[in-house]
């Protein structure tokens, strides 16, 4: 326990009372002191024992061996003895008869006793108490009936919850059978939304209770309660649970734990805490309230101020706009919808030091002479000091437009100083500031004005001679640069330079500043002196030389400025020169100009004394090239500029600019990382190669001298960070970074303060595991980061979880990452109220007062399946008089894999004739319901199934017409025809939409259900025909017509009379005899015959056309070849043509459609060489023309013919046929042009293309016979040999060629 020190005297003896200890228990007590940095050493332990007390109740009072006259009583030792147990006391009596009381005192080792001499079948009350030296403890009571063996009790019934409060409820119930023994204990178990298991929350021993006040509940929690009754035998089964209820809200359980405060800057404090867990909010969480106030050294404080954080998961906040270097008290509270928690213990922290925000008070200044002023001042107001005052600076100046000078007083005990070497008779503005280690504070205000005393004036300025002759010189001058008072007069004295003892003098009033001296010697040098006078006397003299002449002119330019290397410094260069002729007018001043690198010329504002021949130009840039030139000026005017000097480069110097962006980050409890923005190369003053950074750090707890300040050098101008190690823990450090090179150190950075002793954890939690324990809960386990990576005491863990996969609709998924925070003592935690059957990505990080560590690697856990939500959008469509379509959408919260639905429906009102409940399982999202009662309201419910059925969505619907349905058809008239029933009706109003169609329904007279014959969908109708084939024969039917639109159906229009359908015999014979002509047999036969004839004619025409085209092509080729023959061949050809013309016979009869050959033998040049002529054709006179001789050659010419045109397989025609009539040729040619090469006839005439290709590839047969008209009649041979066709056909033969139909 923590005891605050006494406010009156922290060093006085302290005392406290320790409560909540165990009775009669030994304790070791130690005491330690602690401060902000940590705990001190513990004292030696002191042993003490708490006093003895009465014991607690005995355990488990039971009965055994129950008979009419005796019973055995058994008990256990008390759980809390609270001293030395000395014995037990047993008392018993007949129930409700105190006069029968009997007492038995027993030893401490007796735990059972047999009680005899009881009355039969009598209720007895037994009490057992334990005893110590202090006395008897509370008794455990039980009632039993003698002679009846006790059994397990029955659970209570009819549980009801009333008087619901934040922490309690009243539970009413009806006790069950007590098991022949009094109820020794009621156990109330609870089931919450966080946990699916039942947990005991309340116990009470009240045998006759019917009402229990259950305490110890958690506010704003959903509960179900049940009761278990206990008697001496044991516990009953649990009762049925109560309905679910929710306790009301209460203020949060406790304030945030581990509130730590750290100074972030001079005006900011960071507050950290451990957020409350979900069950600790006791209501709807809202956020946190931080209250703070400034306190002074006496302990009194200002008014409390507060800030609200509306984020219940937040664990830190930065308080801003605080006073610098001020001590604050901070308390934190959690708040919800109904109130705030108790405040946390007060945390105290001081903001960091800063510069004073106000100047010293009471600044005074008094002149003590013409060159000195004494300045005095007071303290800076305490609230504006903002740190430890280390010294003061006195700023003073006479011209507000120019920078002020200052004098440093480097201690805070001196509050007066004397300013010296001031200008005389000048008004000075004086201000004082205080500074801390972090820098200068604000100047005092308003400035103090004081004037130095009057004194003798300085020399008059700008003495010159604008007019000079041989005997006259006029001198002019200006007011002294340092008048040192009010000018009362001027005095001019002059003499020959060679006769200084002879002076001419004259005085002038202050308004006259010119004098003409006459009667001077020509061409002589005169020395003029001008002096001013104040109240304190004559001041300094200004001397000027003049030469009396009439020939004055401008001076010559000086010589080239000479620069010696020894005269070159890093920020200044000294050069010398030789003056030129003065043009008989003494020089008054020199003007100096310089150029930086190749830049323009710049003029030095100072006028150089004409008597000197060297000058030093200061305030130059290091490591920069410069050029110089000089101009002389006399009374006539300036000379020309001298020749510019050689280029001179200033030397390197220390860096001219400090680092910026300095940041210090703790990385362990003893080390920090220092980072900064590097200095640009141009600011290293020419020496960047040796450049680096010096990191200086100093502890506030152990200040050191400046020369002893720890330093760490980092070489290289590009370096921008360093890690400082082995620092003192629990201490604030000031960090300064200084750039340096070999020439020296640059300006230091402003110091940055950092607290060493805590750093964010560098390790993540280890061995993170997750397991789904229910559909809404995931149990997590982890190990803390390694001790070396915790960097201080952990405050807790942050658990981040995000939905990565969900069965819900996209709009229902929570995609924001959620956060829970648990204390550092936890190594496991349950994420509850998760979405069911949802995959989560989970990460855990540790945090301490310095901040958050790295997160662990993500793990993925999927919650278990749960009950699905109710289906959505239950709707009804296609509603008729006795059927409808019910459909629905999947539940928004599916909570698992939907494996089906159960649809239940029943009549909304009970009806004895047809009231029943129907359940049907489906896998889809719609169901057609039929056989409903007409114009009856039904209640439908649909439930989805995952691991079990979820809640139902319900809806009512009434069969029959709906709102917006059309009116029923009118005037339904029925008529019978030979084969059908004809229906006619008139349409009524169409309702809210056009009529889309009709239901035609029929009902047998012996049935009660209407059957739909057909459903039309082609709009308005006024008649319809129903074929007997759609009805049963010899059956009496009643018909009705129902119109429908998109809103529903109309009321039915009924037929007045029943219609009797014909018998089956009539339908098979009588009706079939009345077939239409297109179903008669004669019509079918005629149609088939006509089709066959048309097909034959088409094939014949195509074949003839193909043959004519082939002959035409072969004749043309033969003619072309014959034109190329020599004379002998032509004669031979003529004879052959003549013979063929005389014979008048074609090469092949029409029945054969021609012969197969590559080319005609008449067209071969080798005809007379390889083949002897055939016998004369005049030797036989056949009854009809015989085919001419067609020879199939096997020579190379024949083979070459396939190669020349492999696709040409046309039939060769004799020349006699070529000479047929023109009309024939013209017709054949026209037909050939119109013929399609891929036509049906060409396909067969040309044989198969693949077969021709195989002929081409195979080696041809050399020896095959020829076909002539002299061959024996009746011989016909056709063979396929070597890929070619060899055929000998008889004259007049009609044997078809391959590929041709025989009927052509």
From TrEMBL:
Listed transmembrane segments: 1082-1104
GO biological process: homophilic cell adhesion via plasma membrane adhesion molecules; synapse assembly
Keyword terms of this UniProt record: Cell adhesion, Disulfide bond, Immunoglobulin domain, Membrane, Repeat, Signal, Transmembrane, Transmembrane helix
Record bears the keyword Transmembrane: yes
Pro residues composition bias: residue spans: 1172-1186
Stretches assigned to the Fibronectin type-III domain: 1-53, 57-151, 155-250, 255-354, 359-455, 459-552, 557-653, 658-759, 764-866, 870-962, 965-1064
Polar residues bias locations: 1208-1227
One GO CC annotation: synapse
Keyword S-adenosyl-L-methionine: no
One Pfam family in the UniProt entry: fn3
Region named Disordered: 1149-1276
Bias-annotated ranges (Basic and acidic residues): 1193-1203
Cellular compartment(s): Membrane
Annotated protein name in UniProt: Protein sidekick
Organism annotation: Cryptotermes secundus
Gene: sdk
């Amino acid at each position: 326990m923590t005891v605050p020190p006494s406010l009156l005297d922290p060093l006085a003896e302290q005392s406290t009372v320790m409560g909540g200890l165990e009775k009669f228990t030994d304790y070791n007590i130690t005491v330690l002191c602690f401060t902000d940095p940590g705990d001190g050493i513990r004292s030696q332990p002191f042993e003490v024992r708490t006093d003895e007390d009465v014991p607690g109740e005995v355990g488990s009072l039971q009965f055994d061996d129950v008979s009419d006259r005796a019973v055995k009583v058994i008990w256990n030792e008390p759980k809390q003895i609270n001293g030395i147990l000395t014995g037990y006391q047993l008392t018993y009596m007949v129930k409700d008869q105190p006069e029968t009381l009997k007492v038995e005192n027993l030893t401490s080792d007796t735990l059972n006793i047999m009680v005899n001499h009881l009355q039969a079948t009598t209720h007895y009350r037994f009490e057992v108490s334990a005893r110590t030296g202090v006395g008897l403890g509370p008794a455990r009571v039980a009632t039993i009936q003698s002679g009846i063996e006790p059994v397990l009790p029955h659970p209570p019934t009819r549980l009801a919850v009333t008087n619901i409060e934040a922490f309690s409820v009243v539970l009413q119930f009806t006790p069950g059978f007590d098991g022949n023994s009094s109820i020794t204990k009621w156990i109330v178990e609870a089931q919450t939304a966080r946990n699916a298991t039942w947990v005991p929350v309340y116990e009470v021993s009240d045998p006759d209770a019917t009402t229990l006040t259950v305490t110890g509940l958690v506010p704003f929690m959903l509960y179900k309660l049940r009761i278990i009754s206990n008697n001496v035998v044991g516990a009953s089964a649990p009762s049925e649970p109560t309905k679910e209820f929710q306790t009301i809200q209460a203020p949060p359980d406790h304030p945030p734990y581990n509130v730590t405060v750290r100074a972030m800057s001079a005006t900011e404090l960071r507050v950290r805490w451990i957020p409350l867990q979900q069950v600790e909010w006791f209501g709807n969480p809202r956020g946190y309230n931080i209250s703070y106030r400034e306190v002074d050294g006496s302990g009194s404080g200002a008014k409390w101020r507060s800030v609200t954080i509306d984020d219940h998961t937040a664990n830190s906040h930065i308080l801003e706009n605080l006073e610098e270097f001020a001590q604050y008290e901070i308390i934190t509270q959690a708040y919800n919808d109904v109130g705030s928690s108790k405040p946390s213990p007060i945390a105290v922290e001081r903001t960091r030091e800063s510069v004073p925000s106000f100047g010293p008070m009471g600044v005074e200044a008094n002149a003590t002479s013409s060159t000195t002023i004494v300045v005095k001042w007071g303290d800076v107001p305490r609230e504006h000091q903002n740190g430890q005052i280390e010294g003061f600076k006195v700023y003073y100046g006479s011209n507000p437009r120019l920078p002020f000078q200052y004098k440093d007083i480097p201690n805070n005990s001196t509050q007066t100083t004397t300013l010296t070497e001031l200008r005389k008779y000048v008004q000075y503005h004086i201000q004082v500031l205080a500074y801390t280690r972090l820098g200068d504070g604000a100047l005092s205000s308003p400035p103090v004005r004081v004037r130095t005393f009057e004194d003798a004036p300085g020399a008059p300025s700008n003495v010159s001679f604008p007019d000079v002759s041989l005997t006259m010189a006029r001198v002019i001058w200006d007011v002294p640069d340092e008048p040192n008072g009010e000018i009362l007069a001027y005095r001019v004295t002059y003499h020959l330079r060679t006769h200084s003892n002879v002076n001419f003098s004259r005085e002038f009033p202050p308004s006259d500043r010119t004098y003409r001296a006459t009667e001077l010697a020509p061409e002589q040098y005169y020395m003029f002196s001008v002096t001013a006078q104040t109240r304190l006397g004559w001041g300094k003299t200004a001397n000027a030389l003049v030469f009396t002449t009439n020939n004055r002119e401008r001076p010559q330019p000086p010589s080239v400025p000479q620069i010696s290397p020894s005269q070159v410094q890093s920020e200044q260069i000294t050069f010398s020169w030789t003056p030129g002729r003065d043009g008989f007018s003494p020089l008054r001043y020199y003007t100096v100009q310089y150029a930086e690198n190749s830049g323009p010329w710049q003029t030095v504002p100072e006028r150089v004394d004409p008597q000197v021949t060297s000058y030093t130009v200061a305030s130059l840039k290091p490591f920069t090239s410069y050029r110089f030139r000089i101009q002389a000026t006399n009374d006539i005017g300036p000379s020309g500029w001298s020749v510019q000097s050689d280029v001179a480069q200033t030397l390197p110097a220390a860096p001219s600019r400090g680092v910026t962006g300095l940041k210090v980050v703790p990385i362990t409890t003893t080390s920090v990382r220092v980072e900064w923005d590097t200095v640009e190369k141009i600011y290293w003053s020419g020496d960047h190669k040796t450049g680096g950074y010096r990191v200086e750090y100093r502890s506030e707890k152990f200040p050191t001298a400046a020369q002893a300040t720890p330093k760490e050098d980092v070489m290289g101008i590009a370096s921008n960070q360093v890690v400082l190690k082995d620092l003192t823990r629990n201490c604030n450090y000031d960090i300064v970074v200084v750039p340096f090179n070999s020439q020296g150190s640059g300006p230091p950075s402003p110091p940055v303060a950092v607290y060493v002793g805590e750093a964010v954890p560098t390790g993540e939690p280890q061995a993170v595991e997750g397991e789904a324990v229910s559909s809404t809960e995931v149990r997590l386990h982890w190990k803390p980061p390694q001790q070396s990576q915790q960097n201080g005491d952990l405050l807790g863990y942050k658990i981040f979880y995000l939905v990565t996969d969900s069965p819900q609709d996209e709009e229902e998924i929570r995609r924001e990452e959620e956060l829970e925070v648990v204390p550092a003592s936890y190594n496991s935690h349950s994420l509850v109220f998760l979405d069911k059957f949802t995959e989560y990505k989970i990460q855990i990080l540790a945090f301490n007062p310095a901040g958050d560590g790295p997160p662990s690697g993500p793990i993925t856990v999927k919650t278990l399946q749960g009950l699905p939500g109710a289906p959505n959008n239950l709707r009804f469509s296609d509603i008729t008089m006795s059927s409808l379509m019910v459909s629905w959408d999947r539940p928004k919260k599916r909570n698992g894999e939907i494996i089906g639905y159960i649809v239940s429906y029943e009549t909304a009102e009970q009806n004895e004739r047809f009231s029943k409940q129907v359940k049907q399982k489906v896998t889809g999202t719609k169901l057609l319901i039929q056989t409903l009662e007409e114009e009856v309201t039904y209640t439908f419910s649909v439930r989805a199934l995952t691991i079990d059925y979820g809640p139902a969505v319900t809806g009512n619907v009434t069969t029959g017409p709906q709102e917006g349905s059309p009116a029923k058809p009118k005037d339904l008239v029925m008529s019978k025809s030979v084969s059908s029933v004809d229906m006619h009706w008139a349409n009524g109003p169409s309702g809210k939409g056009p009529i889309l169609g009709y239901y035609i329904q029929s009902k047998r007279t012996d049935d009660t259900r209407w059957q739909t014959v057909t459903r039309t969908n082609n709009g308005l109708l006024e008649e319809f025909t129903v074929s007997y084939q759609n009805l049963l024969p010899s059956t009496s039917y009643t018909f009705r017509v129902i119109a429908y639109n998109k809103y529903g159906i109309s009321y039915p229009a009924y037929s007045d009379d029943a219609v009797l359908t014909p018998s089956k015999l009539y339908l098979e014979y009588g009706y079939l005899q009345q077939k239409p002509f297109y179903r008669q047999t004669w019509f079918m036969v005629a149609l088939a015959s006509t089709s066959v004839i048309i097909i034959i004619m088409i094939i014949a025409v195509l074949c003839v056309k193909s043959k004519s085209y082939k002959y035409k092509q072969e004749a043309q080729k033969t003619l072309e070849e014959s034109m190329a023959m020599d004379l002998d061949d032509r004669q031979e050809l003529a004879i052959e043509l003549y013979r063929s013309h005389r014979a008048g016979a074609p090469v092949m009869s029409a029945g054969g459609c021609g012969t197969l050959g590559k080319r005609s033998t008449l067209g071969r040049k080798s005809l007379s060489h390889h083949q002897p002529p055939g016998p004369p054709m005049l030797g036989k006179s056949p009854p009809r023309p015989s085919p001419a001789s067609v020879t199939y050659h096997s020579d190379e010419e024949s083979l070459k013919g396939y190669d020349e045109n492999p696709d040409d397989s046309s039939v060769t025609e004799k020349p006699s046929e070529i000479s047929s009539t023109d009309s024939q040729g013209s017709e054949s040619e026209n037909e050939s042009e119109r013929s399609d090469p891929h036509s049906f006839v060409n396909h067969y005439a040309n044989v198969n293309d693949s077969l021709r290709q195989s002929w081409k590839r195979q080696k041809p047969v050399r020896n095959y016979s020829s076909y002539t008209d002299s061959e024996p009649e009746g011989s016909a041979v056709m063979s396929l040999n070597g890929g070619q066709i060899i055929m000998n056909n008889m004259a007049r033969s009609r044997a078809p060629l391959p590929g041709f139909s025989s009927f052509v």
